[in-house]
Amino acid sequence: MKSDGTLGWSAISTYLDSLASADPTPGGGAAAAVTAAQGAALLSMVCNLTIGKKKFADVEHEVHSILDQCETARRQMLNLGDRDMEVFGTIMQIYKMPKATPEEADARRAAIQQALKASAEVPFELFKRCLAMLPLADRLEKIGNPKVLSDVIVGRYLLVAGLMSAMANVEVNLASIDDAEFCKAKREVMLPAIASMGVSWRGLAGV
Hints:
- 73% of the residues lie in helices and 0% in strands.
- By secondary structure, it is an all-alpha fold.
- It has a single domain, classed as Four Helix Bundle (Hemerythrin (Met), subunit A).
- Helix 4 (102-143) packs antiparallel against helix 5 and helix 4 runs parallel beside helix 6 (180-197).
- The relative contact order is 0.14.
- GO terms for molecular function: catalytic activity.
- Residues 12-188 form the Cyclodeaminase/cyclohydrolase domain.
- It comes from Chlorobaculum tepidum (strain ATCC 49652 / DSM 12025 / NBRC 103806 / TLS) (Chlorobium tepidum).
- This is Serine cycle enzyme, putative.
């Protein structure tokens, strides 16, 4: 935060204004990425409030490793948010391609299919990154500073929100993709992953 330290003054207010506007970007894909990045950032905070304290000296090396992974994931997630906006812009341009002749219509149709696949790949990558972060949240709940346990739980919820939102965005694209094998491959990763999560993401006392 800057200046007076309030959220209303900071850049997040500008982002939310953009999200609320009639402009289609940033949209749900970017919001999913930002949500997931917040989850990763909270886990980083927990790491930073654990590292350097004598009480947690025996796990400090592991927490350093978790911190590195959280910071890498946070950067990647924000990059995916940017990428989501880029591919949406590409799709909008492709829809403007001419279709007056059979040849033009075929070329436009093929370009749309290619762009939709690219658009599905972005939230699919976000899904995988969120999924990879959940075991780190589980581990921090056990070895991190217990004074910030609630931040681990909130971070986990945000990662789950990002993951589920990413899956929804993948499915929106898959619904318009003609390549059955492409769609099957994505679902064969996502659906078992969701099923395997069980209740481990629910947080403190299973609530």
